């Protein structure tokens, strides 16, 4: 079979368009399509485009077919020089290309696809600024251990070191945030690089990929100096980066010289040693105050069946992390989220299922944990053991498989934790007290609204199987307790890296996955007004692809909180030149009409100041199945969380 990027049969019988992307070296490029052939009539400065001969394939087409062969379904990106031809080649190969408005959002969408499907999403970006913009997404994927592949165009190789257009050392730039970062040496080897990038991204703990790590000098000294880098390459899935110079993408070779590789098999799984499993069960049996923590690693591992069975058989109390929510339904009677601080502080034995003792779990240290707490940790990455505090029992292996071992051993050893213990009584009393406090705040519907009244209204009206994307400061923290999840992988938020601005990128990936599965599941993106500002223009992307995402903006006119209209007017009484000195740095424009963006893009928008308006807007948003909705919900600029026993961020004592 002969194929090439110039065969655009999917585009129709006749199409003439002018490419005006601002990143092009030559904005006056015209492309003409005549059902099966398209010609770039004014090639950019540099090497001319090579025209494939009969039986020849170009680099862009080889890349597209290699991705398709490895099961890649979605590519997100912003097109331009030198990857616009590649984007058409992807579509021709049967891959869905989603054109985004910003590279960062494209990277966020790609990694969300990786988390939701276990198949990496791919992000395709232009050279220089395009790759740099996407690095924030790489860092977030690597921190959360989600599989994605970033593909960046780069300047033609003969022009390197001459000051070429957008010339950047991109392989080097991505190394800190990937497992594998490389540049294929020729067209014939592209399939091998693609296969390795995806294998590195998905095997072990997921993550980013980087190639060309080792230099051709003094390798032994380099490894001794930086051993942690080589540990990183051994187990974790994550992110990968592949670099494609323009001349490589446009070079043609005989098709028979390209060896396409079969699809990778699923990642191998491992189980923990049986003697360690028995140690864990005996330790749990001896505990007075046991606790199970369910992390997003359990969600990624599809461990929900075994985790639910473990809790059913043992009656142990459990606490989900933010994206571990839904592995066991939040309304399960053994869920102790409403007494999180107490559960962590008083537990004497903790079983970690795919969760890490990082800042999100306060490093496992006092005063948030007992000084002598015993940790049983299940993780695919051995370097996570003994992190911050000693690990009493280390269970190395796939979370799903190891949890299955624990279920079997718990049944054999008759591990059942009674409900009439002082520990359950203590937790229940604390949960009842916290629910009473929060319930009063939910019931307070006075204007301006508070967080709890607004978010509880969202919770009551949205479909129970909704995928909830949640980001912001208080909007996200309060949302973790108010917005409930009954199914796994139905909550996406700022995660381990604490990234703001990923909301609509995540939501787009989730909506596409819902669209594919055809179950009518809805995506609800609940953001603060500051978080929405990072990627708000992606609402146009939602409209363009007919994704009925419901975007709820909890608007307090600032970062953490702004000022009301009266104070704002007082500040603005002086001249404009004085405002940089007078406007508080955390303030945003009061009552900014963000919902107008949805109307601009062809969706629907609602401005809400009370519960009745919010209820009406949510009902209309749920009824809309082809267009995005923005609900701009105003709340009190001074609204806060309920009083917490501890600050949300554990700091070093200096």
From TrEMBL:
EC number in record: 4.1.2.63
Gene3D superfamilies, per the entry: 3.40.50.970, TPP-binding domain
The entry's keywords: Lyase, Magnesium, Metal-binding, Thiamine pyrophosphate
Required co-factors: thiamine diphosphate
Thiamine pyrophosphate enzyme TPP-binding domain mapped to chain residues: 473-633
Domain (Thiamine pyrophosphate enzyme central): residue spans on this chain: 279-406
Catalytic activity: 2-hydroxyoctadecanoyl-CoA = heptadecanal + formyl-CoA; an (R)-2-hydroxy-long-chain-fatty acyl-CoA = a long-chain fatty aldehyde + formyl-CoA; a 2-hydroxy-3-methyl fatty acyl-CoA = a 2-methyl-branched fatty aldehyde + formyl-CoA
SUPFAM superfamilies named among the record's database cross-references: DHS-like NAD/FAD-binding domain (SSF52467), Thiamin diphosphate-binding fold (THDP-binding) (SSF52518)
Domain of life: Eukaryota
Domain Thiamine pyrophosphate enzyme N-terminal TPP-binding span(s) in chain numbering: 58-172
Family according to the record: Belongs to the TPP enzyme family.
Name of this protein: 2-hydroxyacyl-CoA lyase
UniProt organism field: Orchesella dallaii
């Amino acid at each position: 079979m002969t194929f090439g990027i110039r065969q655009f049969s999917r585009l129709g019988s006749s199409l003439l368009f002018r490419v005006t992307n601002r990143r092009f070296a030559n904005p006056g490029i015209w492309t003409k399509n005549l059902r099966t052939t398209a010609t770039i009539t004014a090639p950019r400065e540099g090497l001319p485009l090579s025209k494939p001969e009969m039986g020849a394939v170009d680099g862009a087409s080889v890349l597209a077919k290699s991705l398709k062969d490895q099961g890649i379904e979605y590519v997100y990106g912003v097109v331009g020089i030198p990857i616009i031809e590649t984007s058409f080649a992807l579509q021709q190969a049967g891959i869905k290309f989603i054109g985004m408005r910003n590279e960062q959002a494209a990277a966020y969408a790609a990694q969300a696809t990786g988390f939701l499907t276990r198949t990496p999403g791919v992000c395709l970006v232009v050279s220089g600024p395009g790759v740099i913009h996407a690095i924030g997404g790489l860092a977030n994927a690597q921190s959360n251990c989600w599989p994605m592949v970033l593909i960046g165009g780069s300047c033609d190789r003969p022009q390197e070191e001459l000051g070429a257009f957008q010339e950047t050392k991109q392989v080097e730039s991505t190394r800190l945030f990937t497992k594998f970062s490389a540049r294929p040496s020729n067209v014939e080897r592209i399939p091998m690089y693609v296969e390795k990038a995806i294998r590195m991204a998905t095997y072990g703990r997921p993550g980013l990929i980087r190639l060309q790590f080792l230099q051709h000098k003094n390798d032994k000294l380099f490894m001794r100096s930086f051993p942690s880098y080589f540990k990183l390459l051994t187990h974790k899935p994550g992110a990968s980066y592949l670099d494609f110079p323009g001349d490589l993408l446009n070079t043609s070779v005989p098709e028979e010289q390209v060896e396409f590789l079969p699809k990778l098999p699923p990642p191998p799984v491992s189980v923990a040693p049986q003697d360690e499993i028995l140690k864990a069960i005996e330790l749990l049996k001896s505990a007075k105050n046991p606790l199970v923590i369910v992390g997003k690693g359990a969600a990624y591992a599809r461990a929900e069946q075994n985790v639910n069975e473990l809790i059913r058989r043992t009656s142990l109390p459990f606490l989900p992390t933010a994206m571990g929510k839904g592995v066991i339904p939040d309304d399960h009677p053994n869920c102790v989220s409403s007494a999180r601080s107490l559960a962590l502080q008083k537990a004497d034995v903790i079983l970690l299922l795919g969760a890490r003792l990082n800042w999100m779990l306060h490093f496992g240290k006092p005063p948030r944990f007992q000084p002598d707490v015993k940790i049983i940790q299940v993780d695919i990455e051995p370097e996570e053991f003994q992190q911050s505090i000693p690990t009493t029992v280390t269970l190395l292996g796939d979370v799903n498989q190891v949890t299955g071992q624990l279920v079997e051993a718990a049944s054999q050893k008759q591990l059942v934790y009674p409900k009439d213990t002082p520990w359950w009584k203590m937790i229940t009393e604390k949960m009842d007290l916290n629910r009473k406090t929060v319930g009063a705040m939910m019931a307070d519907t006075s204007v301006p609204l508070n967080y709890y009244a607004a978010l509880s209204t969202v919770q009551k009206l949205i479909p129970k199987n909704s995928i909830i994307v949640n980001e912001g400061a208080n909007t996200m923290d309060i949302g973790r307790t108010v917005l409930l999840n009954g199914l796994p992988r139905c909550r996406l938020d700022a995660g381990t890296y604490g990234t703001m601005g990923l909301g609509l990128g995540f939501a787009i990936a989730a909506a596409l996955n819902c669209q594919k599965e055809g179950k009518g599941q809805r995506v609800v993106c609940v953001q603060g007004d500051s978080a929405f500002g990072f990627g708000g223009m992606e609402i146009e992307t939602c409209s363009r692809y007919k994704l009925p995402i419901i975007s709820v903006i909890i608007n307090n006119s600032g970062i953490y909180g702004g000022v009301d209209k009266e104070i704002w007017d007082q500040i603005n009484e002086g001249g404009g030149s004085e405002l940089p000195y007078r406007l508080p740095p955390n303030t945003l424009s009061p009552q900014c009409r963000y919902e107008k963006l949805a109307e601009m893009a062809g969706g629907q928008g609602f401005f809400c100041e009370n519960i009745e308006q919010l209820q009406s807007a949510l009902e209309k948003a749920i009824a809309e199945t082809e267009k995005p909705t923005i609900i701009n919900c105003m709340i009190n600029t001074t609204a806060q969380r309920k009083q917490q026993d501890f600050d949300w961020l554990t700091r070093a004592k200096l």
